[in-house]
Write a structure and sequence with these properties.
about 30% strand; 5-stranded antiparallel sheet; 30 strands; alpha+beta; 6 helices
Length: about 575
């Protein structure tokens, strides 16, 4: 019986040791509990605040002292709970015993007039049994409110064709009217939104002659690719912005004002014309009778997405004018008129499907081609004229964008070069102020010594560019030779200082991406090349100590350069090592 008693004693000791520290207050061996049939109570405390409701569960929780956290789950009916609100409740209730219990109510925000579901989850952290989770049943609630409309901004309404997310095509038999619901206070409290429309009488286009069917500007936007920078394509034409598809440039989406801002951003751009995609009604249409009416189409709440979108059946890819009305308590409380569905060619968001996915070709028994339309593309036979016009317009806008991007790239490169030139002028002034005879920010480490060229340290030879000041002296860093171009060099002449010399290429092809610096070592009073600024890493080239040269490219440094080619790697003066002041760049 000794072993069982020992086990019992150890278990009790462990429980005493862990109980107060690793389990909820006074809950060792006990758990908080909800019944699955229990539901929280939802109330609307104030009729003037329909967005706020009080969720309470104090009547259905058992052993509330054992709870560490509650979670209030809130989501609209018919949607996924995981995408709704999950509100953590962990604050203590001062009215509970010893003020240690978590509160059992929470005020949450909901959208009025939307059937909303609620449930409560409890979380109990226990070092013995782990994390305990329980939840209540679901409760349904809907607060009441009266919708209000203060300002319906017509410019925020969008009219286009419907994108079918299942078929992945633009359905030209359905128009889509969209607008943000934030223009309406409590939009889901509306009775319904109603749309009616009428077809705009079609216009016939010009005769299909060669002269009229060809765009005089087609391809002109691509003149940049041929090195003709004088032509500046228009970025936005009317309602048709430059990029037809998913526009990724914020300034383009601002329309014509964005066009101005883009074109004026660089003074180097000069416009000699504009490539306007004017293809709408370029092809003839059948002459029809009375215009057709559509609607009324009604959309009812709830409106859960930020944008309210309503589809309307349309025909023949013609223009339509729509009217949107808003009703509450069986009365109209607002409306917007003259919302125009433009010609297909003037809709920048329309990306026409490939011709091969629209046109079907077969051959009859006589071998003659028979042309048809693949309606699976979203295009029908009546829409073919509008489709071809839109295709030409799409291509023109795309050409505009390509040409503009190429020209912008050239402008940016010019701006970068100009900035570098201004920077180098400032650097020259700084070097001049330091007393440098060589005020060029560019230096070249060279040698004609064949023995040095065979060493791996030969990879330190090359171009060094001024970077700033170190220890009161200028320092330089090795980098690719990318001089900005010709400009005035105050304080020095054009051409390398010192006598010209032919520099051979290193016979050792070792290249390194490690940085190399040229700086003044104040302890030795010498100019040196090293892999660490102020240090001696990979030190191989340096002037003699107690150098009097203010800067490494000055004439007083010439003839004082050394290379570590002596016995045991000691420095040895080498007249074939030189640092040239590059001024003719």
């Amino acid at each position: 019986m000794a072993i069982p008693r020992r086990i019992l004693f150890m278990s009790l000791a462990l429980a005493i040791l862990l109980g107060p520290q690793h389990s909820s207050a006074s809950c060792f061996g006990k758990d908080a509990h909800f019944k699955t049939t229990d539901q929280p109570v939802i109330t609307q405390p104030s009729k003037t605040e329909p967005t706020l409701v009080l969720v309470s569960w104090d009547k259905i929780i058992q052993r509330p002292e054992c709870v560490d956290n509650y979670y209030v789950r809130v989501w609209p009916e018919g949607t996924d709970m995981a995408k709704g609100q999950k509100i953590k409740v962990s604050e203590k209730d001062p009215k509970s015993p010893k003020g240690k219990n978590v509160v059992t109510s929470k005020t949450v925000t909901i959208e009025p007039c939307v059937n909303t579901k609620f449930l409560i989850e409890l979380e109990e952290l226990d070092s013995i049994t782990g994390k305990d989770l329980e939840k209540t049943g679901e409760q349904l609630f809907k607060s009441a409110a009266i919708p209000k409309i203060s300002n319906l901004d017509q410019s925020r309404f969008q009219v286009t064709y419907f994108w079918d997310p299942v078929k992945k095509v633009v359905d030209l038999k359905q128009a889509s009217v969209s607008f943000p619901k934030d223009m309406i206070t409590f939009p889901s409290c509306l009775d319904y939104v109603q749309i009616t429309g009428s077809q705009v009488a079609s216009r016939t286009g010009p005769s299909l002659s060669r002269q009229n069917s060809n765009s005089p500007n087609r391809g002109r936007a691509l003149e940049y690719l041929g090195g003709k920078p004088l032509y500046n394509p228009e970025i936005s034409v009317g309602g048709a912005s430059t990029l037809p598809g998913r526009i990724s440039y914020s300034d383009v989406t601002r329309g014509s004002s964005g066009s101005v801002s883009r074109q004026s951003s660089s003074s180097s751009i000069s416009s000699t014309g504009s490539t306007e995609p004017q293809f709408a009604y370029a092809l003839p249409r059948p002459r029809g009778g009375a215009t057709k009416k559509v609607g009324p189409i009604k959309a009812t709440a709830p409106f859960l997405q930020p944008m309210i979108s309503i589809n309307i059946p349309v025909e023949d890819c013609t223009q339509y004018n729509f009217e949107v009305q808003f009703f509450s308590a069986r009365k109209e409380i607002g409306k917007v008129q003259n919302l125009n569905l433009p010609p297909l060619a003037d809709i920048p968001g329309y990306v026409p499907p490939p011709v091969t996915s629209v046109i079907a070709i077969s051959f009859n028994t006589a071998g003659k081609p028979v042309y048809g339309v693949k309606t699976s593309s979203g295009v029908n036979a009546a829409c073919l004229p509008a489709y071809f016009e839109a295709y030409d317009s799409y291509t023109q806008r795309l050409e505009n964008e390509v040409g503009w991007q190429v020209e912008r790239s050239s402008s940016v490169q010019s701006l970068v070069s100009s900035t570098k030139e201004e920077l180098e002028k400032s650097q020259e002034e700084l070097l001049k102020a330091q007393g440098c005879v060589c005020t060029s920010p560019h230096l070249e480490l060279t040698t004609t010594d064949a023995k040095v060229l065979k060493k791996t340290e030969a990879n330190q030879l090359g171009h060094y560019h001024f970077q700033g000041m170190h220890g009161g002296y200028p320092y330089f860093m090795k980098m690719a030779h990318d001089h900005a171009g010709p400009h005035s060099h105050a304080g020095h002449s054009h051409g390398s200082t010192g006598s010209a010399q032919t520099t051979q290429k290193p016979t050792v092809s070792a290249q390194t991406n490690e940085p190399m610096f040229l700086f003044y070592d104040t302890s030795k009073k010498q100019w040196r090349f090293a892999g660490d600024l102020g240090g001696s890493k990979n030190l191989f080239f340096a002037t003699v100590e107690k150098s009097v040269a203010k800067c490494p490219g000055d004439p007083t440094a010439k003839g004082t350069w050394q290379a570590a080619t002596g016995t045991f790697g000691r420095f040895k003066k080498n007249p074939n090592v030189n640092v040239a002041c590059e001024t003719n760049l």
